Amino acid sequence: MTDLLQQSLHLAAVRSPVLGAVAVAGATGLLAALAAGLAALFVQMRSHLTWLLAARIAASGAAALLVTQLLGHVVSDPRPYLVEHYAPLARASLDNGFPSDHTLVAALITGWVGWLARRWAPLFAAGVLAVALGRLAIGAHHSLDVVGSVLIAGLSLWAASVWPWPPLWRSRALLPPRLRA
């Protein structure tokens, strides 16, 4: 499979030490920063955490995991560095490349942030883009893998948003009063 975007990003990252370092940081470390940002928002917004939010997060995460597992067995996409016989710029698995777990989790986190504190979602969305481009540049994934991950996350988030959750959950606090202060 010819993936011009992936090949171009990888070539640029190999030729430029600065771009290579940025690609590795985006591909490997940025996901932890996004998760830490979500955790910080949970703490900051703890008085606004509801059963509805918790249910949506759990349901979207479970749906994304289920779809990922199913499609991972149906769509076979060996990783670029294995197909083209080069060393990736950072550690990458040997298993099927579809979908990109890093991109999937980054996209889910961004959706959860959108439910919790919408104003922060654009910053997290930029993080998803950086993770996806980083995964392409280090040679861990093809474009199909990262686009598929964003679609899986988006559909899972949408399904959790439209599900008919009990109306009471919208206002029912997740945490007891002593932990909300």
UniProtKB/TrEMBL annotation:
The keyword Transcription regulation does not apply. Keywords: Membrane, Transmembrane, Transmembrane helix. It holds the Pfam family PAP2. It comes from the Bacteria. Gene3D superfamilies: Phosphatidic acid phosphatase type 2/haloperoxidase (1.20.144.10). The keyword DNA repair does not apply. GO terms for molecular function: sphingosine-1-phosphate phosphatase activity. The chain crosses the membrane at residues 20-43, 50-72, 120-138, 145-165. Residues 52-161 form the Phosphatidic acid phosphatase type 2/haloperoxidase domain. This is Phosphatidic acid phosphatase type 2/haloperoxidase domain-containing protein. It comes from Deinococcus koreensis. The lineage of its organism: Bacteria, Thermotogati, Deinococcota, Deinococci, Deinococcales.
